[in-house]
């Protein structure tokens, strides 16, 4: 079963941050905030994603958190304020 | 029932961002990343928090997302890399 998977990151290094963003886009996630991506993943896709992120980070100063959201959690999501657009930024990345 | 509530934000304005961080700390949430807070909230505490955030943001350029995490979602959370510390930053805020 696919679960919407939310990935949030805190990565001070510009180069690593870009590489992580690119990697998340390549796995089919969409940017929902400057430092947050989300998209549906099966359990095995999520495991692969987590391994890939661990390889990218490998001992560097960064923190990434991955939250598989149950349908009940995702349905209760509330978005406040404007939806900021990152399309142009992400077009340049891919 | 209390649910761990995850709040992530994207707020370009420094002053508004600080006020939102202060507000989230005052409601008992803890910083889990530079732009992410989490903590247990009842449904009515969460509604109050959302109203408070809407008042703070009120038409300004900002996006805040609130995710109530079911215990199943929260238990599957994965943290990659180092835990960055924000204690000093938050001590100055409160």
Features:
homodimer, about 90 residues, alpha+beta, four-stranded antiparallel sheet
Describe this structure in words.
2 copies of one chain form a homodimer. The first copy, chain A, is an alpha+beta fold and 94 residues long. Chain A is 43% helix and 31% strand. Chain A has 4 helices and 5 strands, in the order E-H-E-E-H-E-H-E-H. The first copy, chain A, has a 4-stranded antiparallel sheet. The longest helix of chain A is centred in the middle third of the chain and has 15 residues, at 43-57. Chain A is globular and about 35 Å long. The mean pLDDT of chain A is 92. Strand 5 (78-81) of chain A pairs antiparallel with strand 4 (63-69) of chain B, so a sheet runs across the interface.
Query: What Rg of chain A do the Cα atoms give?
Result: 13 Å
The amount of helix of chain A comes to 40-55%
| Low-confidence parts of chain A | none
Termini separation of chain A comes to 28 Å
Helix segment count of chain A?
4
Strand content of chain A: 25-35%
Return the string of H and E elements of chain A: EHEEHEHEH
Largest interface summary: A-B, 36 and 36 residues
Mean pLDDT across all residues of chain A, rounded?
92
Number of DSSP strand runs of chain A: 5
Q: Main beta sheet of chain A, described?
A: 4 strands, antiparallel
Structural class of chain A comes to: alpha+beta
What oligomeric arrangement do these chains adopt?
homodimer
**Strand neighbour order, sheet with most strands of chain A:** 2-3-1-4
Shape of chain A: globular
């Amino acid at each position: 079963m696919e679960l919407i998977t939310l990935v949030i990151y805190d990565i001070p290094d510009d180069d690593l941050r870009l590489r992580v963003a690119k990697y998340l886009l390549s796995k089919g996630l969409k940017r929902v905030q400057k430092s947050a991506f989300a998209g549906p993943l099966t359990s095995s896709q999520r495991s692969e994603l987590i391994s890939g992120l661990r390889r990218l980070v490998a001992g560097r100063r960064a923190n990434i958190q991955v939250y598989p959201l149950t349908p009940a959690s995702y349905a209760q999501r509330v978005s406040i304020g404007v939806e900021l657009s990152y399309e142009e930024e992400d077009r340049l990345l891919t």
